Amino acid sequence: MTLPVNAQTLLEAFSSKTVLIIGDVMIDAYLWGKVDRISPEAPIPVVSVTHRENRLGGAANVALNISELGAVPILCSVVGTDEKGNIFSQLLKQNNLNDAGIIYDSSRKTTVKSRVISNNQHLLRVDDEVSNPISDSITEALFARVQKIVAEYKPNAIIFEDYDKGVITPSLIAKVTQLAEENNIITAVDPKKRNFDKYYNVTLFKPNFKEFCDGLKCNIEKSDFDSIRQYAIKFMQAHQIRIIFITLSELGVFIGDGQNFYHIEAEHRDISDVSGAGDTVISTATLCLASGLDIYNTAKISNLAGGIVCERSGVVPISKSALLDEISNA
């Protein structure tokens, strides 16, 4: 890998950055156990529980990644006033994350994704959530938090982390992107289907391949990079997007700025769990761009970061030291 700056210097540059993350947060709950037999009641495995764990998920995992990479994350989202909302608040404190942008809404349920895992294999996932859009009044309250944070902390970048759980609305997108443009703040988007075509004038748009095809209603092969480029150009021009960055799972990543496009192959790894890899990619890419890195090396480093977390079970953030080793040895 040819980098315009030393890897250590680049990662040190991350420490001077502040990133505002707006989006759907959740608790990733894990039940770990052993499977020794099949249930006599139905053809399903019986899991003997060894331990349980709660982790920060969704946009909160992006905040963790930003923090682990040495930058300052500020999280803006909405959670319930229920028991899970209290657990989420405790997890923020345990991970030393700023809660200045968190709104507690008594009419909403805190999203929880519960996973049952045995021998590093996912056996079951249960989603307990509501996904209807937040109310107009909560949208206004959330935007007021964003305005206050932008004025007080002067973030270098804003990430929209959309999991289609209702926190990000078209109205919020329009207000925040205008605010970012007025303050010369980089904007990065990790989209989902509901709001895919609602983003205009953003710096970085990072769908995965399925989201890209669903959003553009196109039926192309993942390896057809020429067709991907053609569809990407049309979408970027229509939405005034500066950079598009498409993750292709086993085929790596594809990035372009309208003029130059690159495909970067995936590294060969022992994949344990792909959960949360997209969170790591958007976090790393945003910090690279905020630090002045070109799009090719931004994609190269982000691809490495996403691969690293896939080697660990469950949703985990990137390790700064692990990324430094990967960049240095690439």
Main beta sheet? 9 strands, mixed
H/E element sequence: HEEEHEHEEEHEHEEHHEEEHHH
Q: Could you give the count of β-strands?
A: 13
Overall form: globular
User: Runs with pLDDT <50, length 5+?
Assistant: none
Secondary structural class: alpha/beta
Helix fraction, binned, reads 25-40%
Q: What is the gyration radius calculated from CA atoms?
A: 20 Å
* Percent strand: 25-35%
Beginning-to-end CA distance, first to last residue: 6 Å
Give the integer mean of the pLDDT values: 91
So how many helices?
10
Structure report:
It is built from ten helices and 13 strands. The radius of gyration is 20 Å and the shape is globular. Strands 5-4-1-8-9-10-11-12-13 form a nine-stranded mixed beta sheet, with helices on both faces. The chain has a four-stranded mixed beta sheet with strand order 3-2-6-7. The chain is an alpha/beta fold and 330 residues long. 37% of the residues lie in helices and 28% in strands. Strand 11 (243-247) and strand 12 form a beta hairpin. Helix 4 (136-153) runs parallel beside helix 5 (170-182), helix 8 runs antiparallel to helix 9 (295-309) and helix 9 packs across helix 10 (320-329).
Topology:
Blueprint: H1 7-14, E1 18-23, E2 25-38, E3 45-58, H2 59-68, E4 72-80, H3 83-94, E5 98-105, E6 112-118, E7 121-128, H4 136-153, E8 157-161, H5 170-182, E9 186-190, E10 204-205, H6 209-216, H7 225-239, E11 243-247, E12 253-256, E13 261-264, H8 277-290, H9 295-309, H10 320-329
Parallel strand pairs: 1-4, 1-8, 2-6, 4-5, 8-9, 9-10, 10-11
Antiparallel strand pairs: 2-3, 6-7, 11-12, 12-13
Helix pairs in contact: 2-8, 4-5, 8-9, 9-10
